[in-house]
Amino acid sequence: MPIDPKNIVIVGNSSDDPFAIDLAFSMGQAEDIADLISMKIFANTEFCPRFISDEDDFDCIGKRLTGKTVVIVSTSSLVVSRQNLAMRNLLISRAAKENGAEHVMLLEPDLYYSAQDRGPSRDLGRTVTERDAKDLKKFDGQPFTAKLYAQMLKLAGVDSVMTVHNHSYSVQKMFTDVFDGLFYNLIPYELYCDYIKNSNLVNYGPQGEGLALCAPDAGARDFVKEMYNRLNLPKAKFILLDKERFDERRVQIKLHDQSESTFEEIDGHDIVLFDDMVRTGSTVVKSCEFLKQIHPGKTVFAVSHFYASEEGREKMASKAIDEILTLNTLPTVLNRDVQGRLRRKMVVLKIERWLASNLCKVLGVPINREDGLYQIDMSSTNPRFIRKIYSNEQLGELHQK
């Protein structure tokens, strides 16, 4: 049954979270988050959220949110740990439910604890292939934290979870089970397609001549192949790499035996390498260095979750990567100090509008989308964006300039 937009309450797990505020605005919420919920912290440092009500109203005690759908927007922070934010999510959801909320959704663009997606036995985490002793040993002695987080959210009152481009098959299956199918893993195909087609990030002809999409490993193959199909550029190329990982930082790259294109076929092409996340940067730098052997026009790294560690920033400053395209699922990436030396070759797509559109679809409310799926935050002054209506021939000419 469709939800009345007036019955949707959007809050963050901090009252001044710009990402949550932008999402609420995109959903048409007129009230400021800080006027809806108070983030109290007692003198002993304990957190106690409070949904704000009329202090003189004694007729609606504990019923302030009756019939409401509460959406908790949770993003990472430079000043508050993920453990702290996770606990805040639990307390806010419990406060919502104990004050009458009909449905509580957690919207966490980068789902916490997804790297801790298995345990030390075969019944702790489902994988695409059977787990061997080496895989089990990786998790020896530690908990299946992602499952614990999901169960705690459910216990606290969360009814559904929405995230963006979660990389873990195990996490996806487990969250789907815990939340009875109400787990929404949004894949940003249309964001990347829209930007590639409406910018001169890469140069190609009207049907994709001169463009190649690259999957860095077999795990990314389905995602990048779907990107290729949605771009609908029949003369673009698709290549698949293979990697052998020796440890967290040492990898060896080669062309996969099942790659649809050879090195010879993509010589001189602009190449966009896609991945869901980057932490240390070892794999992407090695992959782009490998691709530079064929003298591409440009190598672009497109990644959904950008963990801007100091080590990663240093590695990705490599000349093997010409440009980086990412999303603000971790809003700290918008900070110029966090970007560091990468700021001159980085573009961030701010996805609050796109998320609001998907949230409306899931909740069954009218979509109030402005023109475009996103806003653009550019670190350089390069006037790259060319969103206009052109013929295919004109677009081809623009991309080749």
What's a quick, concise take on this entry?
By secondary structure, the chain is of the alpha/beta class. It has helices at 18-26, 82-98, 133-138, 145-156, 169-178, 189-197, 221-231, 282-291, 310-316, 336-339, 352-363, 392-399; strands at residues 8-12, 37-41, 47-51, 69-73, 103-107, 160-164, 183-186, 211-215, 237-245, 251-255, 270-278, 298-306, 323-327, 346-350, 375-378.
Protein architecture, described:
With 401 residues, this protein is α/β, with parallel strands linked by helices. The chain folds into two domains: 5-186, Rossmann fold (3-Layer(aba) Sandwich), CATH 3.40.50.2020; 189-351 and 363-399, 3-Layer(aba) Sandwich (Rossmann fold). Helix content is 29%, strand content 21%. The chain has twelve helices and 15 strands. It has helices at residues 18-26, 82-98, 133-138, 145-156, 169-178, 189-197, 221-231, 282-291, 310-316, 336-339, 352-363, 392-399, and strands spanning 8-12, 37-41, 47-51, 69-73, 103-107, 160-164, 183-186, 211-215, 237-245, 251-255, 270-278, 298-306, 323-327, 346-350, 375-378. The strands form three sheets. An eight-stranded mixed beta sheet has the order 10-9-8-11-12-13-14-15, with helices on both faces. It has a five-stranded parallel beta sheet with strand order 1-4-5-6-7. Strands 2-3 form a two-stranded antiparallel sheet. α1 (18-26) crosses α11 (352-363).
